[in-house]
């Protein structure tokens, strides 16, 4: 398996006769192992090998609007003399020096722990093997190994890596079961090997786990500078958290509004899908607009995208944009079209529309409103009007399972509340989207898998969630601010 | 001329720098039947770009030992070239002391290479099988490929790039090779 036995893979590559093949084999093995340590790291191969000044790899990660980078130098020998040479030439960049052989901890620690060099990481294939083999989803090992790549320091050989990985796993587990001791022990073990920023990130993540699983925030054993589930913690979990753990994402989303999420500016974070999907009934928007897109196959669980002031759901041939204000939604290519009464009734299915607006010819329109509360789609007048070739449904007022009213405009492919009402993304996807856009098998399948994830996250059926969905609190400023564009 | 040292010895990849002596039996595993160079790699830039080199590094200033060691180095070059000529575009002798001053102008000639090999039983065992005579073409090839470099610590301390300059060069080298690779 790639990366799980880096030391042997390097040995096999070195045994190859051709220099070029040896280098290629080594670089492939190292790259795979580094990627296994952090699947979110972008790894650039520089086409240099064991060069004094130029790294073999440049790792990078998005951070807000910027990118952070760390150089990785592969080294044939990491004895003290070689380390000193490297530190004098490239130590100012605080890189990772990765030996291709075992690093002798005892002989290197003195030189590496000097104050000037403490932020460089000296490590070897045994340590990388240890970090790369951490099962990411269950013990959150990937959170720690990612932190090591970004801000590991000092000498970490195989033994240290095993100790660190074990301490981190125990602490992450303790954070979920609210036991303080393994967390304080982990701090002692881990702090010397991580830069302050990365250590703070790891312990903030532990506190996030602690609180998200019902632990009392006051009882968390370490002081952190960051309060509650703040932006730093959220960014961290959205970048590094366990993708498949639906309940975790439900817990993390307890107090997060759509505005809060958008303000993080982390559009490329890998965990947007599980976070949004596990909180579909909580994240609120007032407007939805659907846009036609070219037919493309999307990677599984890649549908959600965070824009500057809106969130988009990308289907195979459409995008649905959700935002508080219509003006927050980017300009849409193309518009929709009115529907024939029969096509409307077919799209509506078993949902309830208690009013529709029909265009009958160029200048006139008819509004049909139910006084009984029954769906007007069953009204005999629809049947009669459907005989008119010019009659087209332009607008429908749909009653959600939760009893709210949602105006859907087919000519604009848009849905919004009649008043200042906000709707959960779940309501908009379930009640408005199928009405505005004909969902094919692939899109229905994608939405069904989201609903399964949501049910796993909440342990409640989607039907029940739709009936009881009250959503998250809308951010205070959003709630009070009028929505002029929606008038 | 610039060089990138890809391999050095001793370490995990020393096999890349090891060769069987001419006098040893085929496939021998005896340590005494093998010899090695200190490091190897690629030359960079100009006509020599991508050419491979093998090098011996003598990091001490006592020049009196260098004469015999240089002759042994030439015997190693002769045998290495016969074994894998494709890896032997250049042979670098890097020394911290001048040596063999009386022969200085001849150190990179085929005649000196031949005399060096025949100068001792040890060197002959490296380069020649029992009863084998020298091959003039190989002598010429080795002589053309040998480069003698004499350096000093002060040169390394004072005439090398500062860390800041090094970072600029690093950036330029990154861009150059990315360009070559079509990245």
Tell me about this structure:
- The complex is a heterodimer of chains A (487) and B (183).
- With 487 residues, chain A is of the alpha+beta class.
- In chain A, 42% of the residues lie in helices and 17% in strands.
- Chain A has helices at 6-14, 19-37, 80-90, 105-112, 125-132, 136-139, 141-151, 158-177, 181-190, 196-212, 231-240, 246-252, 258-263, 272-278, 341-348, 380-385, 425-436, 441-458, 462-468, 476-480, and strands spanning 42-45, 57-63, 66-75, 96-99, 121-123, 154-156, 284-285, 287-292, 304-306, 311-314, 318-323, 352-359, 365-369, 392-399, 405-409, 414-417, 423-424.
- In chain A, strand 2 and strand 3 form a beta hairpin.
- In chain A, helix 8 (158-177) runs antiparallel to helix 9 (181-190).
- Chain A is elongated and about 90 Å long.
- The N and C termini of chain A lie far apart (59 Å).
- The relative contact order of chain A is 0.07.
- Residues 479-487 of chain A have low confidence and may be disordered.
- In chain B, the strands form 2 sheets. Chain B has a 5-stranded mixed beta sheet with strand order 1-4-5-6-7. In chain B, strands 2-3 form a two-stranded antiparallel ribbon.
- In chain B, a hairpin with a 7-residue loop joins strand 4 and strand 5.
- Chain B is an alpha/beta fold.
- Chain B has helices at residues 66-83, 110-118, 121-127, 136-145, 153-158, 163-181, and strands at 2-8, 18-20, 34-36, 39-44, 52-58, 90-95, 146-150.
- The longest helix of chain B has 19 residues, at 163-181.
- Chains A and B meet through helix 1, helix 2 and helix 3 of A and strand 1 and helix 6 of B.
